[in-house]
Backbone:
């Protein structure tokens, strides 16, 4: 079996976002591993409209070409890491909209997150786990959180020292998250492939 493909998806799309710094930091950490492939997927590049389909694509094929392009990108991966901020105690609306804009492509695949915010975006990550269950995903236990004093030291709104100043506190959790995600990505990939072979026989 080939190594799993993991998407690191940037969930904030606003022009003034800070997301690029934590995204690029995590991408570099992921590239130290040889047990999965990683690709940075920037939600902003997909310019998704607010969901306006007859139903999710579990029930009816989507019609908007931008939604279809998003679904095709998501289908390429065996697991996902959302890079999420916390907006008013949940995820950015663009991120929730992007989850709604696909369905079949998420099913039976693991998902986790790198959350950043005053509380490490824990409420966004918990919402992500709830949504993931409805999308028939595997929300895994290990996630990465940049919060508290480390967030304020790194974020431009306060200290502005950047992630490098606090990365020693993040690196062990990042590796633990990768370990967990890869285990589930391999397990679900094998199961999906077995199921597809049985259906084709
Ligand atoms: C609309 C809005 C709501 C926010 N709500 C929260 C919040 O509930 N908790 C939190 O820790 N930070 C909150 N913040 C601050 C964000 O953590 C901070 O702006 C962060 O940089 C947002 O990520 P982004 O720059 O990648 O979009 C909020 C920011 C915005 C713009």
Residues:
């Amino acid at each position: 079996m080939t190594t799993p493909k993991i998407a690191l998806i940037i969930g904030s799309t606003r022009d003034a976002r800070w997301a690029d710094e934590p995204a690029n930091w995590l991408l570099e950490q992921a590239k130290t591993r040889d047990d999965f492939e990683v690709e940075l997927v920037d939600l902003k590049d997909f310019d998704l409209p607010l969901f306006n389909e007859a139903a999710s694509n579990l029930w009816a094929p989507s019609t908007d070409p931008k939604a279809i392009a998003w679904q095709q990108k998501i289908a390429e991966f065996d697991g996902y890491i959302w890079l999420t901020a916390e907006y008013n105690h949940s995820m950015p609306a663009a991120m929730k909209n992007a989850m709604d804009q696909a369905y079949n492509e998420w099913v039976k695949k693991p998902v986790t997150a790198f959350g950043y915010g005053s509380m490490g975006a824990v409420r966004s990550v918990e919402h992500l786990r709830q949504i993931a269950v409805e999308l028939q995903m595997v929300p895994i236990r290990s996630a990465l959180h940049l919060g508290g004093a480390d967030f304020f030291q790194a974020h431009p709104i306060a200290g502005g020292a950047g992630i490098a100043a606090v990365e020693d506190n993040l690196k062990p959790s990042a590796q633990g998250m990768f370990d967990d995600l890869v285990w589930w990505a391999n397990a679900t990939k094998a199961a999906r492939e077995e199921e597809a072979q049985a259906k084709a026989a």
Notes: The first strand starts at residue 5 and ends at 10. The mean pLDDT is 97.
